[in-house]
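COMPLEX REQUEST
Ligand: S-adenosyl-L-homocysteine
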Amino acid sequence: MPFVYFQTFGCQMNVADSDELKRKLEARGFEETSCIADADLIIVNTCTVRQNAENKALARIKEFSKLKKPQCLLWVTGCMAQRMGDTLKDAIPGVSLVIGAKEIDNLDSIINEHLIHSSFYNQEHHSHSSVSDYITVMRGCNNYCAYCIVPYVRGDEHSIPVSTILDTIRARIDDGVKEITLLGQNVNSYNDNGTDFADLIVKVSALDGLKRLRFTTSHPKDCSDKLIRTIAETPQCCSHFHLPVQAGTDRILSIMNRRYTAKDYLNRIDTIRRYIPHADITTDILVGFPTETDAEFNDTLSLVKQVRYTTAFMFAYSVREGTAASRMTDDIPKQEKLDRLNRLIEAQTEITKEIYDSMIGSTIEVMINGRQDKREKFWMGQDNGCKRILVTGEHFNNGDIIRCSVKRSSGMTLVCDTQ
Ligand code: SAH
Ligand code: SF4
Ligand code: F3S
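STATUS: Structure written out below.
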């Protein structure tokens, strides 16, 4: 049986794309391996959202091209593959195929074209299952935030038909999946002939056997009252909103082309907290956007302290070729960007710690998703929001939802006992 080795960079969309590719290869007789030396095919699924994301992927591809068996194929897929195209083959000898993110809908024909004549192509094989899975409900993005390369490498936004989504999820549930995360760059603008994202949530949650439903990413400008109400009223929906704010000042939000003000954003947060008081709210923040002053950065800090996010992804601005912001001068010195980033990370880490500490003594529902390797007695899981949990206990199955009491917090993880 031929072996395939996967390395995936970037966001959950890429993880979902890797899973899809994995399933297609498994159906053609491949088995996944964690050992490079065994691999007959190496796939590096790349990200290009910031320059350092590209640097990491390039370094890894070079490393793989040296470590791999001579006859092993090396495929580069995803967003950096889309941006660089076949120049990657010239840059790194050993790369045998480049599949850009926009080509994802044609995977079957690409695989058939490149593997059908090889000895790899053999019997049917069914994919393994896990309890938690990502389902892409829309591809691409039309928002053109000034800093962002995603619309260029992923193409125009389009929604996957409801019937396709429901069929895919039903098949996953039959395979043992208990928790689904619906994915898109901006799931809130989902629309399939009038079925919006709230309607989709109602349809998906009606499927038998689905215990938990999650989704990401929400764009604040499209996060409607209807959607928030629907989530509050749908028991399978987890209490977690990832609502990227990016910046806390109207001037910067406007030149970022985010199309909401800080006040609009805070109004969305109020509505979420009114309907779902214990929701975990998380965000993405970008510091050092061109022309951002220290005072404007401080407004972002104040907003962070006001909202009190459970956690946040925080980044220093990185110029991406072809974007609107790339035509502005990248005028914030690197050291200043890093200083702002560190101040932000420090403030957020403190808030995360306080939120986790405040959970001690409370009762939570945890879905078990695996056993911790090192310390055998701990099981890993997730609460109804976004928090990582360790639970002590002997007999759990992945996908069990159990009631636990929180004993202590390690800052990023809650340690619990079963009740
Ligand atoms: N679709 C999602 C995010 C996609 S990219 C959304 O709209 O929120 C993930 C995050 O990377 C963004 O939210 C942003 O904070 C960050 N990011 C995007 N482009 C960037 C750039 N050029 N430099 C630094 N961070 C960037
Ligand atoms: Fe990028 Fe904005 Fe689209 Fe998110 S919404 S992917 S940040 S352009
Ligand atoms: Fe995701 Fe990176 Fe592409 S964040 S959409 S993998 S550029």
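REMARKS: The chain has three domains: 3-115, 132-357, 363-418. The chain has a mean pLDDT of 93.
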